[in-house]
Amino acid sequence: MAGDASRLLPRVAVLGCGSIGKRHLANLRALGVRAIAAYDPAPDRRAEVASCFGAEAVPTLEEIWRWGPTVVFVTAPTSQHLELALEAAERGCHLFIEKPLADRLAGVDRLAALVREKGLVSLVGCNLRFQPGLQAIKRWLEAGAIGHVTAARLEFGQYLPEWRPSSDYRESYSARRALGGGIILDAIHEIDYARWLLGDPTHVACFAGTLSRLEIDTEDTAAILLRTPSTIVEIHLDYVQRVYSRTCQIIGDEGTIRWDYTSGEARCYDARTGRCDIVATPSSWTPNEMYVAELRHFFDCLAGRAMPALDVAGGWRVLEIALAAKEAAAAGRVVALGDAHDS
Are 311 and 125 contacting, i.e. CB atoms less than 8 angstroms apart? Predict the structure, then answer.
């Protein structure tokens, strides 16, 4: 399907018009996509999408399928991702699925099989892979800049009521188990980029729970421990910190890498030379640039110019690790992971 003309002139359907759906709609328009339809059951969201983005906004999926998309963006709450992606894949649509791929494993194998059998392009939206500091770290590690890596510490924390100040956090998918919320799935970015930078873990341990006074029924704090064949990775996640924090430290036997999203700096110290390389995110840079770069990458994949950074098979593996962390926390034991899935 590499020569399919639909990849050059996509008809894009966006399924879910919350904050991330609206972000992608704006970026799709900015990148020149003209044929866009959107689905959301909420009338106010449909009205906003039609007014702000000029997209055809419809209240039912049946109308979306009649419209005939060639590409589908799944941007609904996490608990709906798998069902929507399966419907789209069965109709031969290429897929952009917001992270996480799903909130459960049952049915993911069927989705992966459909994508493979129909030759569909798929991308799971983990936008941090397009952050300049993390991309610099990837290059440093591939070049062996800090020698043999033995350990890493990753952290993300932000006060949940401040994520989307214009809405009640208690009604968000983040706060509700039934919608696939909870800090482990919400902050699956850290699990994804740990795997991207350091390789597949073989074992997972975790402590997690609802420890704050937030009015939610999901875990708000998690400490995850991943064991790869050569590295121990500690990941701290929370909905509680009143000052946004997103950092990582990677320890090698010849140096150390540190990254701070807020300061915009990635630093690589090489003990062999005594040199510290610094990559600073430009002052003009905005977070939306990650999302635009992600979409450009997706369109390159549709045109056959690139391979997906994280396809459904890769997203399946990341989801397995996240759900293994939940299982480890619930059962109080270390969970062993099976083999990764082929793309």
Answer: no
